[in-house]
Structure formats: structure tokens, C-alpha cells
Amino acid sequence: MRFDAGEVITAMVTPFNEKREVDYEKVEALAYQLINTGSDAIVVTGTTGEAPTLSFDEEIEILSSARRAVSNKGKVIMGAGSNSTETAVATAKRAEKEGADAVLSVVPYYNKPSQAGMIEHFSAIAEAVEIPVILYNIPSRTGVNMSAETVKTLARKYENIVALKQSCPDMDALTEIRAICPADFTIYSGDDSLTLPMLSLGAHGIISVASHLFGKEIKSMIRNFKTGDTMTAKNMHVKLYPIFKKLFMAPNPVPVKAALAYKEIIEEYVRRPLVELTKAEKADLIFTLDSI
């Protein structure tokens, strides 16, 4: 199954009001803005969307709100991972029913499954739905790394396992994944600062946080690299690098929400156990943001 969600996919935050309730009007407004400022697609209810603090009903309503806003201008992918295989399967099935274009499913966290366990987990999801499944490998959050061989096994066995979000700076692993997976299997960088290096090793694009603010610039960087203007791509990477790093000065999505609040796009509120940036941290972030 060939699946192309584009080169710049934004892992979208979930806007909250001062009571820390989901602000569905701003969900729609933000989704619309992202699709019109460089993003080819969006991921809702992922890590950046604070999925661990959302109820299932909230997740479905966020998906519906985003789909209304995006319409046919881009794809809407739903974060549907869990450390419970049963829950991940149920969420993926509901996402398919509610019209998601694909699901993003993370390696099970906390239980630290073996590679065999990961294969069983993602096999259950792939067999339960027909829509595309994007694997998500982020060892810093899950506590365990999905091997290149596991990615290959899943990509070759299931037609609807179509892509990987790789949030890991191991370029050797990425090289191996690209070498042993099917040619039409898509790899996305999961870290903004690794986009350019990963493009050089066969990644297609980025599932990005910084694209909330610099979507057009990131799209330009990718396009320039792919058309052979590597110097211009490198210069854009260097220009954006300070904000790529500063957006992770505190747990994601705290800094990007503060940046969006500074730009008067959404409020900065996050749900506990996350907390908003301190005044000093905000000043540091804004200084970097204004310097770009």
C-alpha cells in the first residue's frame, strides 16, 4: 500500500482553555492554519497532543474537529498507540471508523516488550484495520528500541504498515532500515534537528513540532535538499537549529505551546503532570524565537 502524507507533517498540540478543557474551536483554527502554512498533514492526539491526559471521547472529538478544518487539503493522522495491545487495537479501529487517514502507533511504553512482543503488538493492529499504520519508534520515551529487523519484518508482512516515525539519532540504524525495508516504505524523522541528516539517508520528511511556527521554512529546506540545492538546505537547517533545540528545553509540548501563546495563536495551558514554563524560561524561548 503506497501512502504519502507529504513531506511536512505537524504533530499538533491540543489547545486547552484556562480550565484545561479542550478548546475545540482552536483545534479547528490551528489545524486549518497548519495546513495553510506548509504542513501537508497533521497528527492529532499524539505525544505532542498530550494524548496520555486525554479521554477517549476527547480524542475522537479532536479528530473530528481537525478533519472538518482540514477538509480535503491534507491528511489527518490519529495517534492511536498504547502500551496495551487491546487498547491500541480498539483505538485504531475507532480511528478508522471516524475517518482518520492513518494511525500513528508508538512502540509500547513502560512494559518494555521484546522484539517478538513488538511484532505481535503491531501485527494485531495491522490485522484489525485497513487504513495505513505508521510505526513510531521513540526509545527516549518508551524505554526500548525497535530494531531495524523488526521494522523490516512488519513492513514486509503487512501491506498497511506503510511508514516509520524514527525519533532516534542512530544514523546506522536508519541506514539499515532504509536498506532492508521495501522501497515504498516511508521513513519520517521524528526530530526536527535530525531532518536534514535523515533526508541524506533516505527519509522522506519530518513529523515535526517546529512546523507549528516554521512550516514553510521546513518545507523549503526539504524541497531544496531534494532538488539538489544542498547548501541552501543546510543554511536553513543552521538558521532553524536554535529553535529546534529550544522547543525541547522542557518536556514537549510545553515550549511549543508557550511559543504559540506568544504568537497569540493558542493559550499556553498544559495538563498536569506537565507545567507551563517559568517566566525566565519563556524569556529565553522568546529571545530565540525572535532571533530566527
Describe this entry's structure for a reader.
The protein is an alpha/beta fold. The protein has one domain (8-228): Aldolase class I (TIM Barrel). The chain is 47% helix and 13% strand. It has helices at 24-35, 56-70, 85-97, 115-128, 139-142, 148-157, 171-180, 195-199, 211-226, 230-246, 254-262, 279-291; strands at 8-11, 41-44, 75-79, 102-106, 133-137, 161-166, 186-189, 205-208. Helix 7 links the parallel strand 6 and strand 7 (186-189). Helix 1 crosses helix 2, helix 3 runs parallel beside helix 4 and helix 9 packs antiparallel against helix 10 (230-246). The longest helix has 17 residues, at 230-246.
SSE arrangement:
Elements: E1 8-11, H1 24-35, E2 41-44, H2 56-70, E3 75-79, H3 85-97, E4 102-106, H4 115-128, E5 133-137, H5 139-142, H6 148-157, E6 161-166, H7 171-180, E7 186-189, H8 195-199, E8 205-208, H9 211-226, H10 230-246, H11 254-262, H12 279-291
Parallel strand pairs: 1-2, 1-8, 2-3, 3-4, 4-5, 5-6, 6-7, 7-8
Helix pairs in contact: 1-2, 3-4, 6-7, 9-10, 11-12
Summarize the structure.
This protein has 292 residues and is of the alpha/beta class.
Portion in helices: 40-55%
Question: N-to-C terminal Cα separation, in Å?
Answer: 39 Å
Count of helix runs: 12
Structural class, by secondary structure, is alpha/beta
CATH architecture: Alpha-Beta Barrel
Q: Mean of the pLDDT scores? A: 97
User: What order do the strands of the largest sheet run in, or round the barrel if closed?
Assistant: 1-2-3-4-5-6-7-8
What pattern of helices and strands is seen along the backbone?
A: EHEHEHEHEHHEHEHEHHHH
How many distinct folded domains? 1
Spans where pLDDT lies below 50 across 5 or more residues: none
CATH homologous superfamily name?
Answer: Aldolase class I
Strand count, sense and barrel status of the largest sheet are: 8 strands, parallel, barrel
Shape: globular
The strand count comes to 8
